[in-house]
Design brief:
The strands form two sheets. Strands 1, 2, 3, 4, 5, 6, 7 and 8 form an eight-stranded mixed sheet that branches. The chain has a seven-stranded mixed sheet with strand order 11-10-9-12-13-15-14, sandwiched between helices. By secondary structure, it is α/β, with parallel strands linked by helices. The chain contains twelve helices and 15 strands. It folds into two domains: 129 residues; 251 residues, Vaccinia Virus protein VP39 (Rossmann fold, 3-Layer(aba) Sandwich), CATH 3.40.50. The structure holds S-adenosylmethionine. S-adenosylmethionine binds next to helix 6 and strand 10.
Amino acid sequence: MADGKNLGVASGALRSDDLMKSDGGDAKHAFMAAFSAALDDGSFAKLALGKFRGKGEASKAVVTLVLLKDVPHLKVVTSFPRKDETKTYKIEEGLSAIGSSIGETYMSATLFSTTRDVRLDYSRKGVPHLAIGKATLKTSEPEAHDRKKAYLVPPDRPYLKALQVADAEGRIKPSMQGKYRQICRFIEIADDLIKDSDLKKDAALTVIDIGSGKGYLTFAFYDHLTTQLGRRCHMAGIEMRGDLVDFCNRLARDLRFDGLSFVAEEASRSSPPHVDIIIALHACDTATDDAMALGVRGDASLILSAPCCQHEIAPQIKDTGEGLQGLIKYPLLKQRQADLITDAARALLLEASGYKVKMIEFVSTEHTSKNILIAAVKSSHVDRVTAREQYQALKNTSGFSTHHLESQLKDVG
Ligand SMILES: C[S@@+](CC[C@H](N)C(=O)[O-])C[C@H]1O[C@@H](n2cnc3c(N)ncnc32)[C@H](O)[C@@H]1O
């Protein structure tokens, strides 16, 4: 299959009469939009490519949806005289590769969805023609290549449907694969850490999510703790945007998540007396420090945060005679260096407060460069003095004088 750039087709639902109005280049565009829409709404069953005009001896190709580690991919099986060749693509890459081959390598393409068949045919002169027919296939079930028996985050959970991560049949929408992967990865990390922590098995948990946003991870974590782990749980999402708080509170009520509520508040103003677990996932700038400070003050057993943008340290770092000049003269590298210093300082301040800290890769760098998760577990076996010294050394060598978390923890012993 030839490589090609992303077609960027719209994936909204397409009515058959809209499709029939298409001609010329529009016909192919409409066909690809119908393909993309069928993938998005879960009606895609199969796509067949024929009338091969490319180099070599291939005759046809068949495209189906497969699950690889629970993530839908497009599998393209190309038939040659003596063998078949199989390639598997991520959805967007597959759409792009298939789109490039239609009208170049293959002069006919038929989309089989559970609602209709759509056929794109090129004449000898290369003019494309679209035809819509009744659906020949009735099922769109993807082939499971590597389906796990038990999901840590089952895709058919009601909150995933309500948040539009999954469709009505409980299949993750192609456009929400990244979000679902992030949810799964977070739950996997949190699950392991809870099992290793001192959080008593039968006690109700108090959990706070700082910068909860639209609540993807809040709902997922609450559902996991209560439904999958069977824990009693009081969870609050702290979010400064009132519209998101209203949305999430409505959803929590609809889902009967009785122990979950959302509060419209600035992170720095939140001060619960005790908390078991603090999470802050991509909360902006120093909201991450506020979350960590809240966890330390509330004697949290677990503090899980994935820092986002940060603006405090970059303007402060300077060459202190430690040979950093050649790095910080480039603004982009200076910012990256500042991000690392900010997170190292956070980790050391948490260690100095009695937490064991791990730096974990959260999601692939392919999706975001903000992919570090700082996991802090309360422990009595931490060398707090050394951590304090290392923090001071980091300050001296990189030249920053103020760090929001340090100021927040000033009065904490
Ligand atoms: C990038 S979103 C992340 C949302 C969610 N945690 C997630 O990972 O899906 C960051 C959210 O933090 C909120 N936020 C940023 N600074 C905040 C602060 N100081 N106090 C409360 N909320 C804050 C923003 O309004 C936004 O909704």
